[in-house]
From TrEMBL:
Keywords: Signal. This is ABC transporter substrate-binding protein. It comes from Arthrobacter horti. Residues 1-28 form the signal peptide. SMART domains: PBPb. Residues 82-310 form the Solute-binding protein family 3/N-terminal domain. The lineage of its organism: Bacteria, Bacillati, Actinomycetota, Actinomycetes, Micrococcales.
């Protein structure tokens, strides 16, 4: 659930959901985590499971073009012949870099390619700093597909098409050596990716309660890359980490038992594909396209191929009502 503050002054009050440029690490070897960690980090990085990012990328050529939907593609997009997707590949298994350090993979990426195939358009995946995606929708990117959690503030700034649901989950080092409890995080060190709702909403609220109760504040360790957060936890330099539930699940898988979940998933919310506020026709078309992918089975195949099928929505909505 990425949620960094927008740099565009006109949209400053709109929360987002992710972080920085993907060129920092291979989250695909996911949680190889040996590259591009903070200079202050020490110890042995977690090892990836056999095959690293072995989950197969969905093949968009298996998606059949829908001529009726393709006919609704706006003229400017038809002339361009492609969808440009803004994304920040730092959030496995949603969007991250494969072992070559260049190819972006993940269920968000596969879904974006499936949307393009259904509309008969090529798809260009553009790596971006997460906070820059929404302000650049329209002029630079046609869509933003990067684990954006849908919330009321965001809906004030952009159109959002729901396609997935995720909650917040927590993880600790195997065996929970520090005795961490989600019910009492005061005085504990918690790692989080910069700008996620886990940092800006959940941990902030918890920390305010700690301070109000006269307890030690939470030591919030905010890092740009989720890989670095996971490295810190595996090395034992923080007590716990918080992230989207599929991100935690993938981190546990890739670190081969070095970590474990603690507490229950909470604050589940839909995630959405972002479209510029003025591009209502395109937003409506994207919602129809996601619905078509749900009906033909491609949508579920994408999610299942990454082991996140339990996050599937029964239906896609344009600008769903949310808290």
């Amino acid at each position: 659930m990425k949620n960094p503050a927008l740099k565009n002054p006109a949209l400053k009050k709109t929360a987002l959901t992710k972080t920085s440029l993907a060129s920092t690490v291979l989250l695909a070897a996911a949680l190889t985590l040996t590259a591009c960690t903070n200079a202050s980090e020490t110890g042995t990085a977690p090892k990836p499971s056999a095959g690293g990012s072995a989950a197969p990328s969905f093949d968009p050529t298996t998606v059949t073009k829908d001529d009726a939907l393709a006919a609704q593609v706006p003229d400017a997009l038809k002339a361009k012949g492609k969808l440009v997707i803004g994304t920040n590949p730092q959030y496995a298994p949603g969007e991250f870099l494969a072992e070559d350090g260049q190819t972006q993979i993940g269920y968000d990426t596969d879904l974006a390619r499936a949307i393009g195939a259904k509309l008969g358009l090529k798809v260009e995946i553009a790596t971006a700093d997460f906070p820059s995606i929404i302000p650049a929708l329209g002029p630079k990117y046609d869509l933003g597909v990067s684990s954006f959690t849908i919330n009321a503030k965001r809906l004030d700034a952009v159109n959002m098409v729901s396609y997935f649901t995720a909650g917040t989950s927590w993880a600790v080092k195997k065996g929970n050596p520090t005795g961490f409890s989600v019910d009492d995080v005061c005085g504990k060190s918690v790692g989080v990716q910069t700008g996620t709702v886990q940092e800006t909403d959940d941990l902030k609220a918890r920390n305010d309660k700690c301070v109000a109760a006269g307890k030690k504040p939470i030591d919030i360790v905010s890092l740009k890359a989720q890989t670095d957060v996971t490295t810190r936890l595996a090395n034992g330099s923080i007590d716990a980490m918080a992230a989207d539930s599929p991100v935690i699940g993938y981190a546990l898988q890739q670190t081969q038992g070095q970590l474990e979940k603690v507490g229950l998933v909470f604050d589940s919310a839909p995630q959405g594909i972002t479209v510029a506020k003025q591009d209502t026709a395109l937003a409506s078309l994207v919602q129809k396209t996601v619905t078509a992918l749900m009906k033909d089975g491609s949508y579920k195949k994408v999610l299942d191929s990454w082991g996140v099928g339990d996050g599937a929505l029964p239906a896609s909505e344009l600008n769903p009502v949310t808290k």
